[in-house]
Amino acid sequence: MAFVSDWYVSAYAPILDRFGKRVGMLYVGFLDSPYCAAKTRTLLTIAAGFLLLLGFSAPLFFRLASGMFKPLETMVSTIAKVESGDLRARSGRDLGQYEIALVSNQLDTLLERVQERNQQRQDWADALNTRVEAGTAKLRDVNRRLELTSQKLIVAEKTCNNWRNYGGHRP
User: Fold this and answer.
1) How much is the mean pLDDT over the chain?
2) How far apart are CA 132 and CA 144, in angstroms?
3) Average of per-residue pLDDT across 72-98
């Protein structure tokens, strides 16, 4: 930069003869103010273009993002319901074709399998309880009959002992 009466963008280069000896200088310069004005206009144009692009793309981005985040929010809600004990909670099958929606569908499939297995286990537990109750009832009956038989044996033994005590004669 050089200052004469205004600022200039300038450059100097030596002028050499055919033997390489310096014989002068070459000066090139132009006013700095048009360069600064062009630079400012260019930066403002780029900034305005960026803001314009952002203005058009932001709503599109938010629309796409809501399509991707809705399944996540639904999955979080479903997981909270399942944790609180509602095994019938589902995310829903119509959440779109994004990868996150596909994961949500897989979560629903997994929850259905868990619910089926829990129902099977509950059925097995009920069947086992029924069998245990039936076995317990049989044991009670056998135990009752054993007690009756024991009482009869005790009575019979007392009778037999009394019979022996009287010399084999019945009183």
Assistant:
1) 86
2) 18
3) 80
The values of phi and psi at residue 118, to 5°, are -65, -40
Q: How far apart are CA 88 and CA 127, in angstroms?
A: 23
CA angle 35/41/45 to nearest 5° reads 145
Which runs of E-coded beta strand occur in the chain?
2-3, 7-16, 22-31
Asked, for residue 105, whether it belongs to a domain, the answer is yes
In a domain, 60, yes or no: yes
Query: Can you tell me the mean pLDDT for 64-88?
Result: 83
As given in the structure block, the two tokens for residue 23 are 């014989």
Residue 71 covered by a domain: yes
Q: What is the pLDDT of residue 133?
A: 95
Q: pTM here?
A: 0.47
Nearest C-alpha neighbor of 111 from the set 130, 92, 135, 95: 92
Domain count within the chain: 1
For the stretch 93-113, pLDDT in tens is 665 666 777 787 888 888 889
* Residue 154 in domain: yes
State how far the Cα of 120 lies from the Cα of 171, in Å rounded to an integer. 67
Max Cα separation, the chain? Answer: 166
